[in-house]
Specification:
Blueprint lengths: L2 H26 L10 E2 L7 E2 L6 E5 L1 H7 L4 H5 L5 E3 L9 E3 L9 E5 L2 E2 L19 E8 L13 E7 L7 E9 L3 E11 L3 E12 L8 E13 L4 E14 L7 H6 L13 E15 L4 E16 L10 E20 L4 E25 L5 E30 L4 E18 L16 E19 L2 E12 L3 H5 L13 E14 L3 E21 L2 E22 L4 E16 L1 E6 L4 E6 L11 E9 L7 E10 L2 E2 L7 E2 L2 E11 L4 E8 L7 E5 L8 E4 L4 E9 L1
Parallel strand pairs: 6-9
Antiparallel strand pairs: 1-2, 3-8, 4-5, 6-7, 8-9, 10-11, 10-37, 11-12, 12-13, 13-14, 14-15, 15-16, 16-17, 17-18, 18-19, 19-20, 20-21, 21-22, 22-23, 23-24, 24-25, 25-26, 26-29, 27-28, 29-30, 30-33, 31-32, 33-34, 34-37, 35-36
Length: 705
């Protein structure tokens, strides 16, 4: 987007929206006096008013999470305009936030502001490593984040914030049962005094799944200690551990999808994932003065995952063992000047992550009906390597309050990466199915400028604009698990430039709105091409992503409340070259899909919620939800589509007393046959479907001691 056009668009829309707000306030005689503002912490890692932020941020509060009681991250996050999380079984998922539904590392998952995984080790299922049901809130930044965050924050940032301990002794028990063997037990303990408080949360969830042999089991333990060491020093210690055991779930072709959605071609541990994730951090906040704050957060991660990649069972079955350990720290200094009109943040992030990857070829057993039932180990290794990644990332961010209406911010971040790779197998094996780069060391860097402005054009109404550069570093897997590709170690980071304008505000206590327009151009995307009769993975793609996001919350009266989230996107390939196998010549062909719509990118998303709290029974709350995913193309050729789907969900909550709550929720009450992810390989007419959950019921009891 041309910067002059962008600036002109800001002025025009601000003027039009200001006039709209002014006229509407007069016509309806609404009280536009200042309301209590939503507090967010993700942008600066400190509590700030949302009306000061030059970005699109959505918040799911603790009360909202309690009312939703999500069994999957999608049930909570899909209420947010511009956000779609699909359900791949268990708590597995992919995300679509200003991007197509993808496994690419274009999202940053945080826990209390700390990335749950280091750069280069993105997992599209990463939210299942976080204990969302027992968190205090979830904050979502749509689009690139501030200078405090680096790689992967292209599409958005999801920050899950733990519950603070209480000085009053608390014991909370939550037990839930539901369809298909669903069981969840949540236990929380908290206690302390003026100087030290502690909290412990335990989550045990299991399900048989609605599909054959699709059981899922997770256990999470989160501990948090908050301490006031001195008048100026505060410390927050957090330790989180999760174990996940998820069975493989296959895609289905059309006939099975239509007639046997419970069918699963993976039985007896085929396509499994076993995950162990440990994170420990200690945030030391030292208040030097009223204007100066120094924060140091050392952290430690230890992740282990054994898996059989389900998408490779049919053509390259293997067992993989991933193991990485991270050591690092976040250092941040904040100072305010000119009677708090100017704020300066300077920081440095450091991360060192040694990792090990082993992949063994296996043989799988398949029945006449196509069901995979067993496997045997061959002892033959496709890959065995170590990769140690180190990153050093200084940043600076300044924010200036010009007057009562204008606030500006400017930031820049520089990320420097070094990856030392050691291969333990022959570098050039016979054949081309498992190429192995020779041991090497790779260095790359990236500088990301950020700019934003907020304009307060009426009481409780703001316009904002931002222009941000973001990037995605190549993952360790794409660099060194080359498959049949050559020169994978020459990959460079993916680059993205995003421009956004938005409006948000409140009319009295009854009506909240947010509206965002954005355009994002992504270059150097990682794609496959043919050059000199060889298949290469290179930085060759370019895409553009545009959209409008609208969110409304309207308190109709004391009994009824309406919520609406609507998203419209237009995502195009500007220059995207893809290599595919052609049945016509039985050879590889290359084609550029410039001008086509991006595959797996829903054109429309919508979520409508109607809540009812009867005046005569205020302890009861009912909510009816309509959730819709629009049509999208299933591959780059734009020759086949998925029609989209709409689901109806119900939630009932009743507070029996100060100690007891009961709740009931129904999912997909219209029992719609739908697919959570629909795709096909280029030039392959067979479309694959991931069937979604049929009509299901869940009931729970909460007990507070």
């Amino acid at each position: 987007m041309n910067l002059k056009r962008f600036a002109l668009a800001i002025i025009m829309v601000v003027a039009a929206n200001s006039l709209f707000v002014f006229n509407l306030a007069i016509a309806e005689n609404l009280d536009t006096s200042e309301n209590i503002q939503e507090i967010v912490v993700t942008t600066t890692r400190e509590a700030r008013n949302l009306n000061e932020m030059a970005e699109s941020i959505a918040v799911l509060s603790e009360q909202a999470l309690r009312n939703i009681s999500p069994s999957h991250p999608a049930e909570a996050l899909n209420r947010i305009a511009g956000v779609h999380i699909n359900n791949l079984g268990g708590e597995g998922h992919m995300a679509s936030i200003r991007q197509p539904i993808t496994t690419a590392g274009v999202y940053l998952f945080l826990e209390d502001g700390l990335p749950t995984r280091p750069t280069g080790f993105f997992n599209h299922n990463g939210l299942y490593e976080i204990n969302i049901p027992q968190s205090s809130r979830v904050e979502v930044i749509k689009g690139p984040a501030s200078a405090l965050y680096g790689s992967d924050s292209i599409g958005g940032v999801i920050n899950v914030i733990s519950k603070a301990p209480s000085m009053v002794s608390e014991t909370n028990i939550n037990y839930e049962r539901g369809s298909d063997g669903w069981q969840r037990s949540l236990l929380s303990l908290s206690n302390g005094d003026d100087s030290l408080v502690a909290r412990l949360d335990f989550n045990h969830t299991r399900s048989d799944g609605f599909r054959d042999a699709a059981d899922y089991d997770r256990q999470s333990l989160t501990g948090r200690i908050d301490g006031q060491i001195s008048e100026r020093m505060h410390v927050k210690l957090i330790a989180a551990h999760s174990t996940i055991d998820q069975s493989g779930v296959s895609s289905l072709e059309f006939d099975d999808y239509q007639n046997s959605r419970a069918k699963n071609f993976y039985h007896d541990h085929i396509g499994f994932r076993e995950v162990k994730a440990l994170r420990v951090s200690a945030e030391f906040a030292y208040r030097i003065s009223g204007e100066q704050l120094l924060t140091l957060t050392p952290f430690y991660r230890d992740n282990q995952m054994a898996m059989m990649p389900s998408w490779m069972v049919s053509y390259d079955p293997n067992l993989r063992d991933y193991d990485f350990t991270s050591y690092g720290a976040l250092l941040k200094y904040r100072q305010r000047f000119l009677d708090n009109a100017l704020e300066l943040i300077v920081g440095m992030d450091f991360d060192s992550t040694p990792s090990t990857y082993t992949e063994e070829k296996i043989e799988v057993t398949q029945t006449d009906e196509g069901i995979y039932t067993d496997y045997s180990r061959s002892g033959v290794l496709n890959y065995h390597f170590d990769a140690k990644q180190r990153s050093l990332s200084p940043y600076i961010q300044a924010e200036l309050q010009l007057n009562n209406q204008w606030r500006l911010n400017l930031g820049v971040r520089h990320d420097q990466f070094t990856v030392d790779y050691e291969n333990f197998l022959p570098a050039d094996p016979a054949g081309f199915s498992h190429r192995r780069p020779a041991s090497t060391s790779i260095d790359y860097s990236n500088t990301s400028p950020k700019f934003g402005a907020v304009y307060q054009y009426a009481n409780d109404h703001q316009a904002y604009a931002n222009y941000r550069y973001a990037f995605r570093a190549p993952t360790v897997g794409s660099l060194f698990r080359a498959g049949s590709s050559q020169n994978s170690t020459e990959l460079e980071p993916v680059n993205s430039v995003s421009a956004e304008i938005g409006f948000r505000g409140q009319f009295g206590d009854d009506f909240d709105y947010e509206l965002a327009f954005y355009e994002m151009n992504t270059e150097d995307d990682i794609v496959s091409v043919i050059r000199d009769a060889s298949r290469l993975i290179v930085n060759a793609g370019e895409t553009v992503h545009r959209g409008i996001e609208l969110g409304l919350d309207y308190r109709i009266n004391d009994e009824w409340q309406l919520g609406l989230s609507v998203t419209r996107t237009d995502q195009l390939y500007k220059d995207f070259t893809y290599v595919f196998f052609s049945r016509s010549c039985f050879c590889n062909q290359q084609i550029n899909f410039a001008g086509n719509q991006v595959g797996k990118a829903p054109e429309n998303l919508a979520n409508l919620r109607l809540a009812y709290t009867p005046r005569l029974l205020p302890e009861f709350k009912a909510e009816l939800e309509w959730d819709s995913v629009g049509e999208y193309y299933t591959d780059e050729t734009n020759t086949q589509t998925y029609d989209g789907h709409s689901l109806v969900n119900l939630r009932l909550n009743y507070r029996l007393s100060d100690q007891f709550d009961i709740y009931l929720r129904g999912a997909n009450l219209n029992n719609t046959l739908y697919s959570t992810y629909t795709s096909n390989q280029v030039n392959d007419p067979d479309v694959s479907y991931r069937p979604g959950m049929p009509k299901s019921w869940f009931m729970g009891l909460r007990w507070a001691l």
